[in-house]
Design goal:
By secondary structure, this protein is low in regular secondary structure. It has no helix or strand. The mean pLDDT is about 80.
């Protein structure tokens, strides 16, 4: 179990490997506030 109080936490898997990521929300509000790292915002402008 890892508690991440703040900041950006990028995750990556090497080519050919699977990555499973589990987020658990705890507390009274249970809000997920997503924010992108400003240095990597350009990725959202790429065409898929």
């Amino acid at each position: 179990l890892i508690i991440i109080p703040c900041g950006y936490h990028p995750v990556v898997a090497a080519p050919g490997y699977s990555l499973y990521y589990l987020w658990v929300l705890a507390g009274e509000k249970r809000e997920m506030k997503l924010r992108n790292d400003p240095e990597h915002e350009w990725i959202n402008t790429l065409a898929i």
